[in-house]
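Hi R.,

Here's the chain you asked about this morning:
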Amino acid sequence: MSRRSQESYLWDIADSCRAILEFTQGRSFSDYKEDRMLRRAVERELSIVGEAVSQAARRFPEMEQYIGDVRQIVGFRNRIIHAYADVDPAIIWGIVRNEVPPLLEMAEALLGERP
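And the predicted structure, written out as tokens:
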């Protein structure tokens, strides 16, 4: 098992958040519901976020104070992966619009990438 740095997990979180926002920019919830490829792409990136948060919090417990509700993020990742048939597109869309931007902001701030 490779030992990754705290920064590498933050980079993964930021990169996936950026991808989610890029994929959904200018798109509506209706677009999201009707576009299978878009839904799958967003779900994949959210699963990466959840896995990165899980591993970062386990290896660097102090990060939990910056990340926020780690259990909720990891729990949602598990739901996307293991209970994918029960994931409500409206919940994902709400996460994309309300949770991803502040998570990206936090990751960028910790990485020193913000202007």
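Residues 6-111 form one domain.

Let me know if you need anything else.
M.
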